[in-house]
Amino acid sequence: MRRTAHASAPRWMLAVTIAGLTACASPPATRIDSVERRLIMPEGSARYPMAAHQAFAYPIPQDNVSPVFPADYPARELAPTTLCVSFVVDAAGNPAQVNALAQEGCAPAEQFVPLRDAMLAAVSQWRFEPAMFCDYPDAATRDRDWNGVGCAGATVQKRIVPVSLAYAFTFSLRNGKGEVASAKR
């Protein structure tokens, strides 16, 4: 028996059509989101003046997680966008006066309301060991005893002090998946 070719499209065209239809039925590309976190110095911030016999113990973060990229963010793509937050770590180690920060390098938070809200909600839940101002009898004692964490050794006085901090969060979104990456600065 002899085969006859169909007058319709060649087989390769049929294969391409099937492959194209299969691609349409494939699941969508994986959503990739990230948020980067880094400590920044707010413009015009003041510093505690210290004498040679004093030391400053920085507030210690307690497992503070970065904001979660909003699952319902309306766009499928977002170039890396940096939003900033400022707050005070109070005497109990809690963030107070948590606000979006407007300064160079920070996008206007009011243009990215879902990201701003995620940032403010996350930072409001953070906890710290509070900052301390350590007075030692003299500079030699401070140099010998202070280890950079808390007030160690022979201190004359340990004072918990409120401290203003600022963080920058860089949000990005690819294939409908957001990112909040973190790095300390």
Explained architecture:
The chain is α+β, with helices and mostly antiparallel strands and 185 residues long. 18% of the residues lie in helices and 34% in strands. It contains three helices and ten strands. The strands form three sheets. Strands 1, 4, 5, 9 and 10 form a five-stranded antiparallel β-sheet that branches. Mean pLDDT is 81; it is low at 1-9 and 12-27.
Quick description:
It contains three helices and ten strands; from the N terminus they run αβββββαββαβββ.
Give me the Rg, rounded: 27 Å
Helix-strand makeup class: alpha+beta
Helix and strand element order: HEEEEEHEEHEEE
Q: What is the averaged pLDDT score?
A: 81
Q: Gap between N and C termini, in Å?
A: 79 Å
- Stretches with pLDDT under 50, minimum 5 residues: 1-9, 12-27
Secondary structure tally, helices: 3
Oligomer: single chain
Give helix % range: 10-25%
What is the molecular shape? elongated
Write the layout of secondary structure elements.
Blueprint: H1 11-25, E1 32-40, E2 54-57, E3 60-61, E4 78-89, E5 95-101, H2 113-124, E6 128-129, E7 131-135, H3 139-145, E8 157-161, E9 163-174, E10 177-181
Antiparallel strand pairs: 1-9, 2-7, 3-6, 4-5, 4-9, 7-8, 9-10
How would you describe this structure in keywords?
single chain; 185 residues; alpha+beta; five-stranded antiparallel sheet; three-stranded antiparallel sheet; 3 helices; 10 strands; 34% strand; elongated
